[in-house]
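Ticket #4471: structure export looks truncated?
Reporter: QA, pipeline team
Priority: medium

Steps to reproduce: submit the single chain below to the structure queue and open the exported record.
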Amino acid sequence: MPAVSRRKLRLCTCLLPSYYWPQPIEAVLVPDNDGHRKRVLPPVYLLFSLITIFLLHFLIPAGEIAAYPWNLLGLLPLLLGIALNLIADAAFKREQTTVKPFEQSSALVVTGVFRISRHPMYLGMVLILLGVAILLGSVTPLFIVAIFGVLLELVFVRAEERMLEEQFGATWLAYKKRVRKWC
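Actual output as written to the record:
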């Protein structure tokens, strides 16, 4: 990757958990087991989705879901999503385990926001997108919110849950029975 200043790489720091920023963008890409390919992590998907939401809203603004002042209700899911990400990130740090997908966890976090959702950070990211879509007020951004949720499920959630089941066995299965995947 060409040399780029750290300032240009500090993107959406208020929306993304602290473990990603202010690191260079290379830190967001995780090498696969073979060491050759790179995996794009969830905050990059979030950033791409935010950009796409704004582009769709301004280039193809189909329909209106909420006019001013009702569109301001989008602040609720937006702020809740940010809070979920920050609280879950703090829980991972407290338990001294990794928050990055595809890395071996040293602990199974089941307290705090993890009593509500097995994947509160992903839920938070979906809420962030939903909040932004409502704030913008047009229908087209909602398609990106749905696609983003499906992508998280297919690319990250299923693999993470397999890894956690292999590592934590019966403890994971009991937790999985007790707590819903998303909310």
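Status: closed, not a bug. The export was complete when the record was re-opened. Leaving a note from the reviewer for reference: The longest helix spans residues 140-178.
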